[in-house]
Amino acid sequence: MTKHLPSRLARPCHLVSLLAAAFSGLAMADAALTLDSVVVTGSRVEHNSFDLPAAVDVVDAARIGADQARVNVSEALASVPGVTVQNRQNYAQDLQISSRGFGARSAFGVRGIRLVSDGIPASMPDGQGQAATFNLDRAERIEVMRGPMSAIYGNHAGGVIQMFTPDGKGAPSVEGSFAAGSYGTWKSDISAQGEAGGIGYVIDASRFATDGYRDHSAAERDQTMAKLTFRPSQDGKLTLLANTFRQDAQDPQGLQWKEFQANPRGVAWDAARNNYPALAYDTRKSIDHAQGGISYEHRFGDHTVQVSAYAGQRSTTQYQSIPVGAQAPAKQSGGIIDFDREFAGLSGRWTGRFGLAGGRLTTTVGFDYEQATDDRQGYENFVGSGVPANCIANLCGVTGRLRRNEEDRVATFDQYAQAEWQGERWTFSGGLRHSRIAFKVDDRYMVTGNGDDSGRISYEKTTPTVAALYRLTDSVNFYASAARGFEAPTFNEMFYSDGGGSFNFSLKPATSMHYETGLKAMLGAASRLDVALFEIKTQDELVVLSSSGGRTAYQNAGKTERRGLEMAFDTRWAEQLSSRLAYTYLDAHYAERFTTSTGAVSAGSRLPGVAAQNLFGEVAWKHQPTGFHAAVEGIIRSKVYVEDSNLQKAAPGYAIANLRVGIDRKYGPLSLRGFLRFDNIFDRQYVGSVIVGDSNSRFYESAPGRSWLAGVSARYVF
């Protein structure tokens, strides 16, 4: 296969072939291993992942809670190929998640990837999402899909990440857990689940706090969730959901390279102003988030109708290190962001199943409507009259004069249709989605020299997808797929034009063509191999124009290309020993020359924030009679460029190892568990994530050295 591939892919493909041969030769045929999970992402109906013509991985509850704090989704997704999830050690900016390179340049939050939790979008209508709202304590599974098939989910390009919590069933139970570790980190959680009077319930509440690995990186988080399920009839199911999320977090910002080398736990120094900006301005962020939803599903024989609705509110206040002197132009919006958001959505779909031409036809027709309204203000980050030369005493880090006042609205209305025909050997599927996203800004800050920045813009696109799968044998499937992608600018990308000015309505949506081919193979009874090759060509890629003090402006570049390979291999070597290997190769580069505020970017330059190679490996052992278990994890990542020209110092590649041990015991209705985890056991100093295109060259975000976490939990079934 590899001799016809581009030379950039040949070497990784040979590596995968050798690894697969080595692992398959050692696999034990008589061991039991769950290798074919049921997924709903992609086809929107229950489907074996092995028979789905897409790159999709399922992270089950065992891996989500594998001796982890269950605070960040980066803990759970480290073993998924094609997806990079970086813990920035900065809870004010959330995780950095990218899929096949999409989302890597996001200044904060998740961009270019659709996030969904129990059917409720964790991505806002404009495409910006927050993975922090995922409740990992009660997660039953997380489904991660990359590639062309994700185009059927609308305005994004990189993929879909969906989290599901279980329904309350059976006898009532209560569970409590506590974990603590390095850097003053601790978390407590309490939950209850069961079924009473025909109503299933799951209730959970947790509190998390940390002093942070770096200076000025402390955080506190409170999270709750409740889920009720009820069957009004044999064929109907009603689900009610409610979630809250509150967080206060300091923002340590990035470091220059020499600062990272000298003191990776410190904050940056500003020689021009003779201060530490993160400390002087007390950079920080507070979030208060609440949402609720209702879903009803009814089966009519082989047909199903599902309708759901949700609504929520989010308040955010963020302090940035933007000097007052840099805010002199009237159009600049200040160093403090303060907004209240109300959001809501409604969706419905019909799914029918029919016999056709000796096979099975499944069709789905649906719609999604989402809207959000922000009441947004901006303030200067200081108190007092005049412009201080330096931020001292109480002059900075508190709210000053109003500099921005507006109402921002965004709404999307999408319609889609999907169909899949499954025969004895072949499966064909296709889909079509029409998306319309509309932005509206009402500027209410009318002062001399400011002007009226009100305006509106809308984007519209129809995205098709097609796929085919061929069953060579009962244990080997080949598939191929293709789709058009659509990625509109988010409000965060439109907020500033070059130099920190007002709205940038000139941005165009990025459009892309995705191609993928893959192999899924069961090797004996105890191993599974998944390999995917892909190519993506994008027009009008959204790139960083300038970035300083937490304020980032964007522009459209020309063409980009992404080519890569993803491989995952799971096996059980003996009754108590198992392993997983996940490898990603990604060649992501600009295909055309373009210009930013800092200079020209040559064709062939690598996309920043994206590693060319990632490798995850794990070997786990469990002694069933005693419940004792242990595992070793290894993570290798190649270097990452930090800005578009590739001229600045790239974040070097690294290799780290983690070790975890634990024990599970059961005494009648009481289950006990304890664990001890060591991360980065060889105490490597490395850059865990980067801030793409920072104008102050503060690109680098340090990862912790050797650290530990210990936890205990108890569950009682009544």
Q: Layout of SSEs?
A:
Blueprint: H1 7-26, E1 38-39, E2 47-48, E3 55-60, H2 61-64, H3 73-77, E4 83-86, E5 96-99, E6 113-117, E7 120-121, E8 141-146, E9 159-164, E10 173-181, E11 185-196, E12 199-210, E13 219-233, E14 236-250, H4 257-262, H5 277-280, E15 284-300, E16 303-319, E17 336-356, E18 359-379, E19 402-422, E20 426-443, E21 455-473, E22 476-487, H6 491-494, E23 510-522, E24 527-539, E25 542-548, E26 551-556, E27 560-574, E28 577-590, E29 594-596, E30 599-601, E31 613-623, E32 628-637, E33 654-667, E34 670-679, E35 687-690, E36 700-702, E37 707-717
Parallel strand pairs: 6-9
Antiparallel strand pairs: 1-2, 3-8, 4-5, 6-7, 8-9, 10-11, 10-37, 11-12, 12-13, 13-14, 14-15, 15-16, 16-17, 17-18, 18-19, 19-20, 20-21, 21-22, 22-23, 23-24, 24-27, 25-26, 27-28, 28-31, 29-30, 31-32, 32-33, 33-34, 34-37, 35-36
Q: How would you classify the quaternary structure?
A: single chain
What is the number of domains?
1
Q: How large is the share of residues in beta strands?
A: over 45%
Helix share, percent: under 10%
The count of DSSP E runs of length 2 or more, i.e. the number of strands, is 37
Provide the structure class.
mainly beta
Classify the fold: give the CATH topology: Maltoporin, Chain A
**Count of individual helical segments:** 6
Q: Which runs of at least 5 residues are low in confidence (pLDDT < 50)?
A: 1-33, 326-330, 383-390
State the shape: globular
Q: What's the overall average pLDDT, rounded? A: 88
CATH class designation: Mainly Beta
CATH architecture: Beta Barrel
Report the C-alpha radius of gyration, rounded: 25 Å
